[in-house]
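The pair is quoted verbatim underneath.

:::
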Amino acid sequence: MKNKLLPVCIMLLMASCIKMDKAPVDAYSSDTYFTSEQAAFKNLAAIYQYTKMSGFFEDGNAIIMDDISDNAYNPFTNQLPYFIALGTATPSLTGKYADLYRTYFPYTGIRSANVFLDNIDKIQMDQTKKDIMKAEVRFLRAFDYARKMMCFGGVPLVTKVLQYGEENTLSRNTEAEITNFVLTELGQVADVLPLTRSAAENGRVTKGAALALKARVELFVKDYANAAKDAKAIIDLKQYDLYNNYEGLFWEKNQDDPLRNKEVILEVVYNPPTWGSWIDALYTVAEGGWNSVNPTQSIVDAYETKNGRAITNDPSYNADAPYTNRDPRFYASIIYPGQTWNDRIFNSLEPVGPDEYYNSSKGNRSRTGYCLRKYCAPTDYLTNNSPEEAQGLNFIVFRYAEVLLTYAEALIEQGTNLDQAAAAINEVRARVNMPPVTDLSQQSLRQRVRNERRVELAFEGLRWYDIKRWKIGGQVMNGPVYGVRPGKVNMTTGAITFSSPNHITVGDVRVFNEGRDYYFPIPQEDIDVNPALQGHQNPGW
């Protein structure tokens, strides 16, 4: 932690969350920098940036988190998720892209938050504005600690500006202590943060965001009573609703639609060219993408038929026409062989057209034969025609559908108000015209809400946390990764003729160690410089 808790230069002031004059600052000095309201906003912008709430490649990596779950596969040996999912990552493995360990463990954001809170009162400005800014910073610090807790367990709890060398004396607080700090902070700031923001303030946290994070953490630690309470509090605010276009929710061209924004509780806002979202890691080869997120057969099979039944429990499901009559969220989230995409028929089953054949030895093709469609709007809709250039696609951190599913699960796990739990699930399903769930037994509803979370929130970076809290890693992560069935695609109609009943495998066998892999390792470089951390690595690492 030596290099992460020392004073930092507040330089990256083209932060994604606040629109303001972002002139660079060459060096940090609390005496000269906390001198005006504008200076306070510049510091606040930097803290938003340092917190890394985004999901895009190397700017938060939340979407890439699905690569270490059963939802997706990462094929690249220069990206850390490849090794994490195979069970071969180590605390010393650094220098990789999408380094989830080094993205989420550093204290840069927390250090900046503590500096802000220690110095903001030097500024003469409207007290209400100042109090709201303090609450924002405390939220961001709580978000950072919440993610650390969910990934690493107990970590050092730092709430003040440290003196030089003091960082090397900090031992780990317990997971319970971090959790209690986060929930206490969020409970307090929720009463200070505004209910709504103006369009110019889009991306800044609100009361709803504080309650959404609080409910997410409470669900994670199985505090179901409070998770239900806080989720219901968000519902009762009457500020949020589901957007009627599931696919369009993740398209930049709809970000000015007030109906779309009713679902968004908090998002990271991008404004190219000053600050752009880089989404080329998500696109197919033909659009210049890398396919860093390869959807698996497992997630494909998780989508129900349009009859609202699992494919294993619907007589109408045809294994030789597997992509017909499925949950509309499947078509909005995954590109599959034979689908029309960007004015072409996508064919990953044969070595034709762009290098998208799953068995090719060239290019950045998907190894599973499926590609990501969520976030990947048709190129005509992009700010710039190529995804290889900076875009203005925001990343949604919290949205109303998650709140409804949190409310439902928390009720289900308590075994109370199961009719209300079903109603919340059905509200999410109704948005995409999926039939309602009708079996109100606790066991059935538990199964339904878990699958509903998986398909509704697919590729939003939450699946690994669900696997962890449900303790199903050994069940869903061990073994081969499966993809499409081999065959041919009619390049006129998109019809598929399969040549084998068996699904391909990517060639890698995943290993999930139940006694180790529910926690990330503390990065070895941080342990090496801090005697107080030595001997306190997470079990198995």
In short: The first strand starts at residue 72 and ends at 73. The radius of gyration is 23 Å. The mean pLDDT is 93.
